[in-house]
Design brief:
Blueprint: H1 19-40, E1 54-64, E2 81-91, H2 99-102, E3 106-113, E4 129-135, H3 145-156, H4 158-162, H5 166-178, H6 190-200, E5 212-213, E6 218-220, E7 223-231, H7 233-238, H8 253-263, E8 266-274, E9 298-305, H9 313-321, H10 338-357, H11 368-371
Antiparallel strand pairs: 1-2, 1-9, 2-3, 3-4, 5-7, 6-7, 7-8, 8-9
Amino acid sequence: MSLHFIAYSPDVESVEPDFDENVRTVLAKLEQHITGSLTSDGAGRALREAHAKGYGLVRGEVEILDGLPKEYAQGIYAAPGRHDALVRFSNGSAHPGPDHRLGGAVGLALKMFDVDGPTLLEDEPDSRTFDYNAINSPVFFCSTVRHYLFVQELFFRAGAYFTEGRHGRHRFYHDYVTGMGALPPDEWAWDELLAFLALAQRPMVNVLLSTYTTMGAVRHGDHIAKVRLAPDPTCAAAVVERRMAPAATAEFFRPALVAELRERPYVFDIQVQLCTDPDHMPVEDLTVEWPEWRSPYVTVARLRFPAQDISGPDNLERMDALSFTPWRVPAAHRPLGSIMRARKEAYRRSSLLRHRLNHQERREPRTADEVLPLTAPGPTTTAPEVPGPATGP
């Protein structure tokens, strides 16, 4: 069956009321949280306002596939090629702490190098890097910046809620749905709460076994898309340390990742889902999962990790010095929707403040080698060639 893909145009986005004012409030709270994290979390350094705890920085390579259908061969994917890459795995929480307290919401941030074209960041148009920020859920837990104001405050206070046990959890859910009492009943955030619960209840598995999505829509050249990174089934089947056991140890995500990459290479498929129905595959409502029966995900590239040793403490230091943002892309891959637009200045402001408070140089690297020279655990091993699935819709 032939699919009709919706063409990209600027009017696929809508203007949220009070967007600029709400973003300014988000930024003020964000900066207050980051500054306070120097002492509140006992780390002695300023932390990210989300994904505060990293599990490892991994060296990789992205291979863009040849022979893609024209609808998918757009932007960076228009021609086959290879790009060095770095990947940060992290927990989605705004706080550090033992893994069993932080839950199973895990992020994958990808940075590709030597990408042609100016980025959408006005202060670094010529970086020649390309970022994806993805998490192990197909949906996000809010769709408007107005509601994110309440969610942001709740997440910053999450520890206080959940230390109260069942009563505290109930208050948290009530405040989530009602916007801390500010939303009228016909605007209560039930869909947002369900999306949050789905993410919070993700099983704790090896980070190599999760599928990561952009959640928000992006431009894909002439079309509109969502992007995900899915484990190659052959590689996933070979993973030894699979389900994490919180009762056994406080730290399990990073040790499991280190152990797997020391022993074997790994592959993720980079996949694109094109929008065919703006009503059932909306740009602005991030709580809606785009149905795959309306438009399947198609593999456009592969992210390959050679076997490597990421066990040293310097790995986490190098990871912490990097910044990732969905706006470090060419115009052909522009993020779409209110939440994605709000992320542009939020990610930039967060990175600037965090680097300043931590006395870190903030400079976008030109090559992966500048950040993480590949350290093989033994004889250099390359990721296996994996036969590609059919790339047609």
